[in-house]
Every structure is written in C-alpha cells, then in structure tokens.
Amino acid sequence: MAVAENDVRPVVAYEPRDAFMDFHLRESRWAVLVAHRRAGKTVACVAELITRALATTKDKARYAYIAPYREQAKTVAWEYLKHYALPVTVDPEHDFRESDLSVKLYNGTVIRLFGADNPNALRGIYLDGVVLDEFADMRPDLWRAVIRPALSDRNGWAVFIGTPRGKNEFFEIYDKATRDPAWFSILLRASETGILPAAELAGARESMTENTYRQEYECDFDAAILGAIYAKELLAARSRSNVGTVIYDPTRLVYTAWDIGYGDSTAIWFWQVANGEIRVIDYYESSGEPITSYMQVLKARGYKYDTLWLPFDAENKGIVTGTSVVDVLRKGGFNVKVVPKVSLEDGINAGRLLFGRVQIDQRHCQAGLESLQNYRWDWNQRLDMAKPTPVHDVFSHGADAWRYMALAVKADVNTKPGKALPLPNIGVLRI
Q1: Please, which residues have CB within 8 angstroms of residue 235's CB and are 6 or more apart in sequence?
Q2: Does residue 288 or residue 293 have the better pLDDT?
Q3: What digits encode the pLDDT tens for the residues 27-70?
Q4: Residue pLDDT, tens place only, 13-34
Q5: Rounded Cα–Cα distance for residues 359 and 363 (Å)
Q6: Cα(279)–Cα(242) distance, rounded to whole angstroms?
Q7: d(CA 126, CA 114)
Q8: Which residue, 67, 199, 220, 299, shows the most beta carbons closer than 10 Å to its own?
Q9: Alpha carbons 220 and 214: distance in angstroms, whole number
Q10: Which fold would CATH assign to domain 231-415?
Q11: 18-216: which CATH topology?
Q12: How many CB atoms lie within 10 A of CB 83?
C-alpha cells in the first residue's frame, strides 16, 4: 500500500541516527544538509531516496543521486543503494543495472546515480527528487540550468549535502536556507553530534592542519581552502570593489581566452580593454561539445571580437581530421592567436598579477569566479604540504583559462588602449 511521501518509516535495515531524524521528518521541498565527515549523510540520503520512491503515488517516478563525478557516485553510493534497495525489488538480477547505475523498485520507480561531470546526461530528463552530494565541488550552474528545470513539471524536491569548501555556492544555498522558512537546513558539527568518539576526533585534529579540521569536522565555512592558489588575490580584488557590475561597451572589441577540454570542460573568459584597464565582462563553460558549438556561443553573445587566445596545444593536428582547433576557428572567421608557452609557475604568477588590473562582472562571471576561488594545489596529507601541481577538477578549467588570459594580457596586444568600433560611445547593461 502506498504511503504519504512524508512517511519516513525506516527502509529495510536502515536505522536513522538521531542527528538525521529532523531531516527525515521534514516537510519542506528544499533541504540543505551540512555534515561533518563520517556522519553518515550519504547513507541517510540513499535511504531517503528509497523511502520516498516507495511512497510516491506518481506514475513512472524518477529519482537521482548526483556526485561531482560518476565514478565517485559509484564508489560512494552504489553499494549502499544496492544493499538497501535489494529487498524492495522484484527481480534483482534485472532490476539493478550496473551499466547506468540504476535500480527499479517493485512499484516501477527508478533511482539512478549520476556524475555532475557529465551534465549532458542530465539534460532533458525529469526528476521527482534528487540528492546533490558534495555540492561544493560541483558547478553551481548545474543546479540552475539543468537540475532545477528537471524538477519543475513534477514538483520534485532537492537535497543539497556536503561539507564546506569556503564561501562558495554551497554556502550561499545554506545561508539562504537558514533564512527562508520554505527550506529545511541543518548543520552537524562533529563536536556536537556525538557520532564519532572523542579520541577519534583528537587523533584527527593532531594529524590535520587547523583549517582542514575546522572545515571537515566542524563544518566551518570560514576556514581557508587548503592550498587555495588565488584566494588572497581574489579577496583583495573584492575588497577594492573590483568585482561587481561591469558595463559592456559596444564601441570596443572583445577578447577571449580559452582552456580547451578534449575530454572534459572548455572554459572561456571574455574581456575588453579601455585605457589600460581590463574589463572582464563574461564567462562561459560547457563540456562534451565540439568546437563548432563554442563558435555558435560566441556569435550568440553578439560581441564583436578582436582575438581569441588559445593554449599552445590548440595547434596540434587531430589524428583523424588532420586539422587543429586553431584551424577550425580561423576557418570560422575568427582571429586566433596562441598564448606563449611558459611554465605552470610563471603562468600562475601572471594570473595572480592580473587581479591588480581587472574589473570583473559578478553576475556574468559567477561560475568563473567560483573556479578562481576553488582552484587549489593538490595536497600531500602525509607530509602536510602542497604538491607542485593543482588539483584537476571542475574548477581547474576556468582557472586555466584565467592563466591563459593573463598570458594574453602580458603579450603586446592588451597593453594597448583597445580597439574601438564606430558606434555611439555608450555602455550596455546586459540582462
């Protein structure tokens, strides 16, 4: 017999921890769960998905668990999903599909695991409920542009879970939830839940930096991101009010700098130059698209372009096509140059210096700013020191494109006042 969706009777062998009971008993459509490491938030949310999937009266209901990467979703949640869903399937041999990480319950409802690294797999689907795990490590526009629309016609619900990673989009959502009665929010600190023994917490604290411990176990959004590369420069730019509203000037040409993803994301920064000042007006990022689709994006923006600056490997010829990215863009009518090949260290230093010369539009560059804030060195936990290479994740593409932009600015063209177009000298505030 179907039960109401707010009926939270335990699923199979799942026994909710006291810290999660308010979460399971909530009636709000939107929820944010900030929890310390090893609190059991993933298990709680997998059980939540199964419980509500069994309780729904909707036809052909679909639910999803999304992690930053598909492999991460498989590693973290797949075994839990199989364990707790096994007794509520009809034919386990066929109801569990390893190929797409999905399970069909006895009422026909499907729960599937996804990775945020492939947003195209989520486009066009509908969802009745979704859990976004470690949302701090995901692109914020995944929620706004892909997931939120997927919930609309089914009046679906969403739960954001994770630990802090500085004051990024996850913090903004949590902060909103604490002030909006339509949202449920909870913050679980290890020092308060009693889930982990005091001796274990003491040992963890001894083996970590204070910032790491505060972030991972005390859910402190103010703790510095470990190994952050541009955090100091970005904070200084914000304090100088260099991040805010930047007016697009239709009398001036637009430059772009690209990081080209051959198996993941491509990121593009857009800027203008006026009297030596770099005005960063726009940012775009997507994945799994051919270069020709990015050409269409540039044209759809309606800007008049001077130079597209690409990384040095964009001149490499494809084995099958025999053409390079540079060739394709030039054939499309764009002026293309390749940034100088320099060391990673020199490129990052150029990126740091660029913050002193720029005005950045907060609204149109939000995803890019998130990349800059979260770009960080990989960390050697054993030696408690940074490795010489940055972490390659969803934030590194925008930061790499910023580095190429800095190298383009350092080159001769952008030290000049900037070319003007024969249009009225007025600004345009984009919407």
Answers
A1: none
A2: 293
A3: 999 999 999 999 999 999 999 999 999 999 999 999 999 999 99
A4: 789 999 999 999 999 999 999 9
A5: 12
A6: 10
A7: 14
A8: 67
A9: 5
A10: Nucleotidyltransferase; domain 5 (3.30.420)
A11: Rossmann fold (3.40.50)
A12: 14
Which pair of structure tokens corresponds to residue 287?
């994945």
Amino acid in the structure at residue 313:
D
Give yes or no on whether 18-216 and 231-415 have one common fold. no
Q: Average pLDDT, whole number, for the chain?
A: 89
**CA 164, CA 115: separation in Å to the nearest integer?**
19
Domain ranges of the chain: 18-216, 231-415
Give which of 293, 241, 246, 302 is closest to 273, Cα–Cα. 246
Per-residue pLDDT tens for 73-107?
999 999 999 999 999 999 999 999 999 999 999 99
Give the Cα separation of 392 and 229 in Å (integer): 13
Coil vs helix vs strand at 272: strand
Angle of CA points 260, 264, 268, to nearest 5°: 35
Could you give the C-alpha distances from 344 to 184, 185, 263, 396, 400, in angstroms and in order? 43, 41, 21, 13, 10
Element holding 135 (H helix, E strand): none
Residue whose tokens read 């593009």: 268
- Report the greatest alpha carbon distance in the chain: 73
Residue 85: both structure tokens together: 């869903």
User: Taking the CB of residue 151, how many other CB atoms lie within 10 A of it?
Assistant: 18
Distance CA 301, CA 134 (A): 32
Strand 254-259 versus strand 305-310 pairing type: parallel
Assess contact for 306 and 251: CB atoms under 8 A.
no
**pTM summary value:** 0.71
333's tokens: 């009518």
3-state secondary structure of 299: helix
Question: Which DSSP string do the residues of 149-162 spell out, in sequence order?
Answer: HHHHTTT-EEEEEE
Q: How far apart are CA 355 and CA 351, in angstroms?
A: 7
Residue with the two structure tokens 């989009």: 169
In terms of Cα–Cα distance, which of 290, 299, 340 is closest to 318? 290
